[in-house]
Amino acid sequence: MSPLVKIRSERDRMSAVERRIADFILENAQLLRDYSSQQLANALGISQSSVVKFTQKLGFRGYPDLKYSVGEAIGRTDEGDGEAAPLAERPGGDPLGAALWQRKARAEEATRHINSPETLHAVVDAIDSAGKVFLIGLGEDDLHARGFAVRLSLLGIVAIRHFDVSRMAAQVAMSSPGDVLIVFSEQGKHPALAKIARYFRERRGRVVTVTRHTSNPVRALADIALAVAAHDDASYIQSLIYQSTVQQLLDTVFVHLCEGDEARHARLVQNLDRIQQMLEP
Questions:
Q1: What is the pLDDT of residue 220?
Q2: What global pTM score does this model have?
Q3: pLDDT at 87
Q4: Which of 100, 68, 137, 115 is nearest to 239 (CA)?
């Protein structure tokens, strides 16, 4: 894994000092070769030992090892993207749009490394074997809950989605062992969602959470946790990146559900055809 991708993917789990180091490296990767660990510490107003501990926590032997790996990653990027970079600079191009695409791509790459294939397959298997799938998300998180519930229904999977906590609590009371609850919560701190997840587990259901890559109460209750790395200094950009990265995760799970069962895939095609016929004049 690229050291820059690794830093992005772990940033949300870092301490305040570690995030300062991470942000400096991400923003000044091209200049890192000119900095010793002491110079980097001086630039950030921290101790040299903090820099060393940061690199070791990421799995590097020391700061020189990190600096060398970052240099190699930059070299590979320069060689691989030499033809793509000028596209944003063409007359009539859209630099802001191109930059947004790049930010989204970086977040999706970091998120892909956080969620192992085993984790994704565990989510697919849990949904595949569930009698019912319950979904809940509040605010913007409900957009993903609603959209994924519709897709599951098209596959013939019983999907029960609510954005009202009290109604979901009543629905959960009808859950059976082996059912799945998918909780969408960006920050993972809503007390009501944690209570519902805890109650669902008491009924021997399996809880899947979709949150940021942080330690949070909702994620702590998960049987299977999907994590999202989507940091950006601009709050409006960070929200867009998070939403698109969650969608990429859900799309991946959906594709696995389609590819893993021919009968389910055929049912999807039939349902899409039926909907199309209903929409035609």
A1: 94
A2: 0.77
A3: 43
A4: 100
Residue spans in the chain of domains classed CATH 1.10.10.10: 3-92
Write down the mean pLDDT value for the chain. Answer: 87
* Tokens 């991708």, located at residue: 5
| Sheet containing 206-212: order of strands | 159-162, 133-137, 180-184, 206-212, 224-228
Which residues neighbour 208 within 8 Å (Cβ) at sequence distance 6 or greater?
A: 123, 126, 180, 181, 182, 183, 222, 223, 224, 225, 226
Residue 219, pLDDT above cutoff 90: yes
Specify the domain boundaries for CATH 3.40.50.10490 within the chain. 117-278
CATH number of 117-278: 3.40.50.10490
Provide the b/e sequence for 223-257 (b: ≥16 CB within 10 Å). bbbbbbbbbbeeeebeebbbbbbbeebbebbbebb
How far is residue 6 CA from its own chain's centroid?
14
Topology (CATH) of 3-92? Arc Repressor Mutant, subunit A (1.10.10)
**Least confident span in 97-106, 115-124, 157-166, 239-248:** 97-106
